[in-house]
Amino acid sequence: MPRPYTYRLIAPSLLAADLAKIGEEVARAELAGADWMHLDVMDGQFVDNLTFGPPLIQCVRASTGLFLDVHLMICRPDHYLQRFIAAGADLITVHLEASHDVGQTLQRIRQAGRQVGLALNPATSLEAALPFLDQIDLLLCMTVVPGFGGQAFMPDVLEKIQAAAAIRAARGLGYHIEVDGGIDCVTAGPCAAAGANVLVAGSATYGAPDMARAIAQLRHA
Ligand code: DX5
Ligand code: ZN
Fold first, then answer.
1. Does the beta carbon of 44 sit less than 6 angstroms from any atom of ligand 1?
2. Given strand 9-12, what is the order of strands in its sheet?
3. What percent of the chain has pLDDT over 90?
4. Which of 27, 74, 81, 177 minimizes the number of CB atoms within 10 Å of its CB?
């Protein structure tokens, strides 16, 4: 089995879909070749936007076999965790900057048999994540300040991605490195070259005239 991070995965973000027809929009991504479905949960406090929660994820779970990559941009991931597990998330990513005992939350995700993700805002240094790297399946390096789709990619984050890949090699770890925010066929290449293998894209997938073509471009950029 190759190390998980050696293959590229494309994760369309449902945030950019037409939410009036969620089932069709998930199926559209699946048919277009998506590897994962990225689900952005926002609570209006951790970020200045509100999206959806466990009931919607449960409906998506019932409608697709796609791997569900749930990105929690909420202040208290520990409080809501069990509901996202019950809703059928395959991977749950929590923010290091949220108000919780990070190590304990990661451990609870693991104990529930789900994959474990840790997210860092652009301003958060990789040093802050060092104590947790051996607990995770995925490190999400945000490439925009989270909260909204359609923002411009922040190239300064590339250095953090390179450092995260170097530390992974030095410690013999196997976590994916995911990027999220402003990823398109121009920014995907530099991210992949820096070491990212999971590419989240909202505008560049759902907003494209031909999603299959857009996903193929992201995969080969
Ligand atoms: C931003 C979200 C992203 C967002 C990406 O806070 O975490 O997942 O949907 O959207 P684009 O690809 O349009 O930047
Ligand atoms: Zn996201």
1. no
2. 9-12, 198-201, 176-180, 138-142, 115-120, 91-95, 67-73, 36-42
3. 97
4. 27
The response to whether residue 15 sits with its C-beta less than 6 Å from ligand 1 reads yes
Structure tokens at 133: 């790297």
For residue 21, CA distances in Å to 17, 27, 95, 148, 208 come to: 8, 10, 29, 20, 17
Characterise 113 by phi-psi region: left (phi > 0), alpha (psi -120 to 50), beta (else).
left
C-alpha angle 177/93/133, rounded to 5°?
Answer: 55
**Does residue 178 have its Cβ closer than 6 Å to ligand 1?**
no
Asked if pLDDT for residue 218 goes beyond 60, the answer is yes
Domain residue ranges of the chain, discontinuous segments joined by +: 4-220
Which positions are catalytic?
40, 180
For residue 122, report the distance from its CA to the centre of ligand 2, in Å: 13
- Sign of the CA dihedral with 67 first, then 45, 20, and 219 last: negative
pTM above 0.85, yes or no: yes
The pLDDT confidence band at residue 4, using thresholds 50, 70 and 90, is: confident
